[in-house]
Amino acid sequence: MDFGACHICPRSCGANRRVAAGFCHAPSEPEIASICVHKGEEPPISGAKGICNLFFAHCNLQCVFCQNHDISGTAVDKDKIFYKDLDSVVDRIAEVLQTSENMLGFVSPSHYAYVIPELMERLHERGLFPTTVYNTNGYDDVETLQMVEPYVDIYLPDLKYMDSALAQKYSHAADYPEKAAKALQEMFRQKGSALPCDDGVAFRGIIIRHLVLPGAVENSIKCLEWIADNLSTNLHISLMSQYFPPKQLLDGSMKDFPELTRTLSEDEYEQVKEKFYALGFHKGWVQELASNESFRPDFSKKEAFGN
Ligand code: SF4
Q: Which residue of 72, 178, 188, 289 has the smallest Cβ count within 10 Å?
């Protein structure tokens, strides 16, 4: 990876990450906040025993409503970085895979995607061949996705916005709709619409997540319409109602988003669900509205269908 000028994500900000911070504030050497078993993903991703999730620190999107602000914001607390060298990362993954499903999730990988090929080669040398999940915010570069194609089995992207003004306001990325559309089309080219499973655990495919934001029903409907019109209604969709105002919006450190200081209303969610079914989606999960009482996804409170 040439860090003379970083263009690995759609920000394409050209930072030399060895010496200076780009938009994501991620240095060239990978910084990883956590590698642990996670049971809160969609059922074919978590399985019965949970997935080994690797949480990259920093983020290329910087959403104002991020629930992981401590490890993803521009001022990541260095005490929260636990892994920096690939040897210790491989050791820890090997340890976690002993108790988890044979699944490895890369969480927020867009700015560290170049680490994945070497990491996977090292795991293969150790005789470890987990199914890999690319769990991303959707703001991904097409060439980067082609680079990781041989190493990724399942894409788990968000589709956050199809409203450019909203994407600019909440994630400083007016081009998110255009870039995420290209990224999802590339994922679809690679994996298609099927989500084949073995004993209830997926080994290939795509699940698209969409989090409904308060006051943004039209954006949600545009996202669902885009998937139906440009990809397929046969895809598995994970419709999420769990939005909960994070502490940076409640403690006054970000003051310009009063509309995001509440949870989703029942009426808002019903409008999106109605459109979801009307468009013909029939595979995936629809989260119960009560899920916004917790900070984390809880798919035990999801209505599953068409699996
Ligand atoms: S990964 Fe970071 S440094 Fe590289 S282009 Fe994206 S925001 Fe800029």
A: 178
| Spacing, Cα 267 to ligand 1 middle (Å) | 38
C-beta atoms surrounding 83 within 10 Å? 22
Amino acid symbol at 166: L
Question: What residues contact residue 95 under an 8 Å CB cut-off, 6+ apart?
Answer: none
Residues 6+ apart with CB under 8 A from 65: 170, 213, 243, 245, 246, 249, 257, 260
Burial class (CB in 10 A: 0-12, 13-18, 19+), 106: buried
pLDDT in tens, 86-139: 999 999 999 999 999 999 999 999 999 999 999 999 999 999 999 999 999 999
- Which atom of ligand 1 is closest in space to residue 23's alpha carbon? 7
Domains of the chain: 32-305 (3.20.20.70)
Cβ 15 under 6 angstroms from ligand 1: yes
Q: pLDDT value at position 76?
A: 67
H or E element at residue 133 = strand 131-136
For residues 177 and 175, what is the distance between their CA atoms, to the nearest angstrom?
Answer: 6
- Asked if 206 contacts 195 with a C-beta cutoff of 8 angstroms, the reply is yes
The answer on pLDDT for 261 being more than 80 is yes
Q: Report the atom number in ligand 1 closest to the C-alpha of 111.
A: 1
**pLDDT digits 0-9 by tens, 158-187:** 999 999 999 999 999 999 999 999 999 999
Regarding the beta carbon of 180 and ligand 1, being less than 6 Å apart is answered no
Nearest CA to ligand 1 atom 1: 111
| Sequential DSSP letters for 242-270 | -----HHHHSSSS-S-GGGSS---HHHHH
Tokens of 217: 């029903």
Instruction: Report the atom number in ligand 1 closest to the C-alpha of 17.
Output: 3
Cβ of 6 closer than 6 Å to ligand 1, yes or no, is: yes
